[in-house]
Amino acid sequence: MMNIRKLLSLSLFLAMTLSISAQDDMLSMLEDSAITEYVSGSFKTDRVINLHSLENTAAGELDIKISHRFGFINGGAYEFFGLDQATIRIGGDYGITDRLMVGVGRSSYEKTYDVFAKFKLLRQSTGARKTPFTLCVLGTTAVKTIRPSDPTRENYFSSKLYYTGQIIIGRKFSKAFSLQLSPTIVHRNLVETAAEKNDVLALGVGARFKLGKRTSLNAEYIYVLPDQLAPGYRNSVSVGFDIETGGHVFQLHFTNSTSMIEKGFIAETVGDVGAGDIHFGFNIARTFNIK
Amino acid sequence: MKNIFFIVMLLSTQLALGQKYFSKTGKITFSSDAPMEKIEAQNSSASTALDVPTGNIEWAVLIQGFKFEKALMQEHFNENYMESSTYPKAKFKGKIDNVKDVNFSKDGVYNVTTTGQLEIHGITKPITSTGVIMVKNGVVSAKSNFSVLLADYDIVIPKLVADNISKTVEITVDVNYQPMPTQ
Lengths: 291, 183
Known about the structure:
Chain A is mainly beta. Chain A is built from 2 helices and 14 strands; from the N terminus they run H-E-E-E-E-E-E-E-E-E-E-E-E-E-H-E.
């Protein structure tokens, strides 16, 4: 008899708690619907500084970029710390889909035109389908249109062409920290001396540390594997800030690279950071919706 | 044995009494009109449940699921304003005060008042709103709209864009309920 009474009270208690919890959390049985959430905002824009970031321009968005690199700051007060000279790239990036973007640009440095396409193979996501990182592929072509230094020589068009292939593997580790690796190959159809390689292998690293909701500290370094470039060429290193103001992203930075396209900043950087060969520069990005 | 039978009876009556409705495709839209920019977004996968005898009603929606016309606006919404990686959901838990006035088995449009707690951006505030429950051919649907003050939920608008963003947001909810299967 005692046992049955105990059982009865226990069951009553259970029934009560069950009904309470059912009322308390009516939605619990609706949870975990199969939604994949893609991680957004790993970087403020589709460039870290010079390197392409793992971000793309969204479908139907045109991102106009105006970028400057001033002269070396070690020019001193006479050169107004480099601000007397400027190298410019004007470009536009467009998202065909959320995963495929294309872009064109024109750099004053050696009067170079460039085109590129970037595709996101994998997108970092949580939820129904979990992907730990984002993986993009980038292909670029550049054509140098500056008049040849020796016009008497036969100058082939193909000699002015440069290609880059790059894989971007990156992850937003936290709200504030994103990191990416960019293994790259730059192909030059023509190089100046036989000692230089036509194909240059390099590994880029780019990172972002968010300082506030709308500002971040960015850094990138590109390691070029040894014995590929002539002496005097150096690895590209850049540090800067991203400041976002609604439709604009301002990127202000210091870098030892003059060029703003892959073949240039990876394989043609000459600035010696230790000697003060540092450019102040900026990229201004303005996004337009032209869907 | 008798007692066990009694308990089973008790439990099953309780379940039978609790007629519930639910949906996973509740539609929530919000819009804010400012002189510079109209901000509008929609989410069609809100979860909601309605318990008829008590009038208890709950909503939950993933912030990331709000779709904007401009992708950049959507990114800023998630990154800068709602901080959706930290506060992934907005929730409402409340009661239809006059649920007794609604006859769920008779066609009609019933005005209702709902009070409860609304959680947005990690902050919970009491809220009262009015809406309608419609019953048509046994299908129950509900609609309501109300407005919230962004400052109440600690959503900060930087001075630089203060003219572009309205300080209040109009929220509309719209759902066709289905009866919840009894277990």
